[in-house]
Design goal:
Number of strands: 4
Number of helices: 7
Distance between the termini: 32 Å
Largest sheet: 2 strands, antiparallel
Strand order of the largest sheet: 1-2
Order of helices and strands: HHEEHHHEEHH
Shape: globular
Structural class: mainly alpha
Strand content: 5-15%
Length: about 200
């Protein structure tokens, strides 16, 4: 039922997000050139891999994430417009509107048995961890929130998360610790090194 409702909702708003996607794609092409879409293999439902898409926010070349992210990229991240291509993943059934964020497949062997339960549901464009700190919280806390969502998921909770996401994007508060930074690499032991996920 959830998948049917989300698919109908995404298809009903297709003219809006498709127009926005075309505008963002044109802006990225003019600002950074091609490709305009970043692709990376991520773990989906039950850990099955799929190729996630999002609009590119970093220029190519050397340097840290903060150094390579462009002015346009900061705007796209702050408004979550870089995530627009993932609405197509909702239509194809690889993602949901709400669920734990999909992470790189290389993380799969690093999860504890409890943390791996985040893959019992489809990954989401937004989720309980995203509206409760996102990159401002540790990986361990993020996974705790993901598993809490798996155990308490409902239509009412999904609606609450969607409303909180919209509010936080417009208020630009609590969604991301810094739109210029990505989370450190998850090593499974609480330590990390920088990673490039965009």
């Amino acid at each position: 039922m959830k998948r049917t409702i989300e698919t109908l909702l995404v298809l009903a708003t297709l003219p809006l997000w498709l127009a926005a996607s075309l505008a963002v794609a044109a802006a990225v092409a003019l600002s950074m050139g091609f490709p305009v879409v970043f692709r990376q293999e991520r773990a989906g439902l039950r850990g099955r891999p799929f190729m996630l898409m999002k609009f590119r926010t970093m220029r190519c070349g050397e340097g840290t994430d903060a150094e390579r992210v462009t002015r346009l990229g900061r705007i796209l991240r702050a408004t979550s417009l870089d995530e627009l291509p993932q609405l197509w993943h909702v239509v194809t059934g690889k993602m949901s509107l709400v669920g734990p964020r999909p992470l790189p497949t290389r993380y799969l062997p690093r999860y504890s048995a409890e943390q791996a339960r985040r893959h019992e549901v489809r990954p989401g464009i937004t989720g309980w961890a995203q509206v409760n700190g996102r990159n401002a919280i540790s990986w361990e806390r993020k996974f705790e929130l993901d598993v809490w969502y798996v155990d308490h998921r409902s239509f009412a909770l999904d609606a609450k998360i969607l409303l909180m996401t919209v509010a936080k994007v417009f208020l630009r508060s609590g969604v991301d610790s810094s739109p210029s930074e990505t989370m450190p690499e998850f090593t499974g032991c609480g330590h990390g090194v920088p990673q490039d996920q965009r």
